[in-house]
């Protein structure tokens, strides 16, 4: 746990240091993801992301997502219907604006394991109700987790995590953005883990980096 605390401290310090450089494009995202079993087949998804232009304090976006999923096979092939509330505060011509978006989404997640490689495919369709517009978007993410000090994702295991996600609009322009992510994670126990890493996003021909801290909670609600 001392190593984990040191890792988190390094990432937080990096984000805080960047907050003093107002012209820097490096932001920071602090994220919580919950995926909790309601029954053998049903799960409750809950998620909060606090995104900043700098280390902390200059809000870029607050994202809250929730949904109900169903496993088509045992602990895999999950289909989910969800809702998202997104509060954005972008800078427009040097002035900060506020936008609110309501989002309905449908997704399918399938997982595979090859040796010590844990693969995940996520397909997501979003209906985006913006303040002055309605748009639809498709997203595909390919993620990979690789345990380092164990062959399995067991408690007290460090692991590497990478993913690539592409966003495509169903209307023009087709390409929306692409995200590439790399992180070091730690399995606290069978239901809890934490990751600290870096994500680069390409949007409108611009690259922007994000330091990320993510906490994952899979504690089941059912007694079994």
Written description of the protein model:
With 224 residues, the protein is mainly β. The protein has 1 helix and 13 strands; from the N terminus they run H-E-E-E-E-E-E-E-E-E-E-E-E-E. The protein has a single domain (2-217), classed as Beta Barrel (Porin). The chain has one helix spanning 2-18; strands spanning 27-37, 42-52, 59-73, 76-88, 91-92, 95-96, 99-114, 117-129, 134-147, 157-169, 175-189, 192-203, 206-217. The strands form 2 sheets. The protein has an 11-stranded mixed beta barrel with strand order 1-2-3-4-7-8-9-10-11-12-13. Strand 3 (59-73) and strand 4 form a beta hairpin. It is globular, with a radius of gyration of 18 Å. Residues 1-23 have low confidence and may be disordered.
**How is the CATH topology named?**
Porin
Amount of beta strand: over 45%
* Number of domains as seen in the coordinates: 1
- Can you identify the CATH class? Mainly Beta
- Strands of the widest sheet, in order across it, are 1-2-3-4-7-8-9-10-11-12-13
Task: Specify Rg, calculated over alpha carbons.
Answer: 18 Å
| Count of extended strands | 13
Task: Work out the helicity level.
Answer: under 10%
The CATH architecture comes to Beta Barrel
- Mean of pLDDT: 90
Series of H and E elements: HEEEEEEEEEEEEE
Specify the biggest β-sheet.
11 strands, mixed, barrel
How many H/I helices? 1
Task: List the uncertain runs.
Answer: 1-23
First and last CA, distance:
28 Å
SS-derived structural category:
mainly beta
What best-fitting shape do the alpha-carbon axes yield? globular
Provide key terms for this protein.
signal; Intein C-terminal splicing domain-containing protein; eleven-stranded mixed β-barrel; 13 strands; DUF2490; 1 helix; 8% helix; disordered N terminus; 224 residues; mainly beta; Porin; single chain
């Amino acid at each position: 746990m001392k190593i984990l605390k040191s890792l988190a401290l390094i990432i937080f310090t990096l984000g805080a240091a960047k907050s003093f450089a107002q012209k820097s494009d490096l932001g920071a995202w602090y994220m919580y993801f919950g995926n909790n079993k309601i029954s053998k087949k049903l799960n409750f998804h809950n998620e909060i992301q606090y995104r900043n232009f700098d280390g902390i304090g200059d809000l870029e976006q607050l994202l809250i997502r929730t949904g109900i999923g169903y496993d088509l096979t045992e602990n895999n092939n999950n289909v989910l219907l969800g809702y998202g509330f997104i509060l954005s505060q972008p800078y427009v011509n040097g002035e900060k604006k506020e936008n609110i978006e309501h989002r309905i989404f449908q997704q399918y997640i399938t997982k595979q394991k090859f040796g010590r490689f844990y693969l995940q495919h996520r397909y997501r369709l979003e209906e985006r109700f913006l303040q002055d517009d309605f748009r639809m978007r498709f997203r595909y993410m390919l993620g990979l987790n690789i345990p380092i000090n164990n062959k399995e994702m067991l408690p007290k295991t460090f692991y590497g995590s990478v993913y690539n996600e592409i966003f495509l609009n169903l209307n023009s322009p087709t390409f929306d953005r692409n995200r590439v992510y790399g992180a070091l994670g730690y399995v606290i126990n069978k239901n809890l883990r934490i990751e600290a890493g870096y994500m680069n996003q390409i949007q409108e021909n611009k690259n922007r980096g994000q330091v990320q801290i993510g906490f994952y909670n899979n504690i089941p609600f059912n007694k079994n």
